[in-house]
Amino acid sequence: PASPAASAPASPSAPATDAVTYQVTIKGGNVEPKPDVVKVKLGQTVRLTVTSDQHDEIHVHGYDVSAELEPNKPTTVEFKASTPGTFEVETHHSQKLLFRLQVQ
Asked: Which residues, in sequence order, are bridge partners of residue 31?
């Protein structure tokens, strides 16, 4: 009986390790790390955390994903990369490119 209980938690945690986590900081109008291409596999979960020193909104083109950014407060969005292609992830008001998401 101890064996199934021990193996049960391993199964649900496996998909979580498959998630792609990306963190971006916007400070003084500069994006860190510099915008690049982030490659993920079709069906993977993307977890994006953005911290900005200004009030803004992040938007993932090609997906119905957006979130308000409060100054100096990390904001995390999570979504499934369900559409293949390359999509820009940017801020709405300041129009800063954060990165390009390449789903393949």
From this structure: 26
CA 66 vs CA 10, 59, 74, 78, 87: distances in Å: 31, 4, 14, 10, 13
Residue 15 confidence (pLDDT): 43
Domain residue ranges of the chain, discontinuous segments joined by + = 19-103
> How many C-beta neighbours within 10 Å does residue 26 have?
20
Pick the CATH number of 19-103 from 3.30.390.30, 2.60.40.420, 1.10.3720.10, 3.90.1150.10: 2.60.40.420
Contact between 35 and 97 (Cβ < 8 Å): yes
pLDDT tens, 21-72? 999 999 999 999 999 999 999 999 999 999 999 999 999 999 999 999 999 9
The total of other beta-carbon atoms located within 10 Å of residue 104's CB is: 10
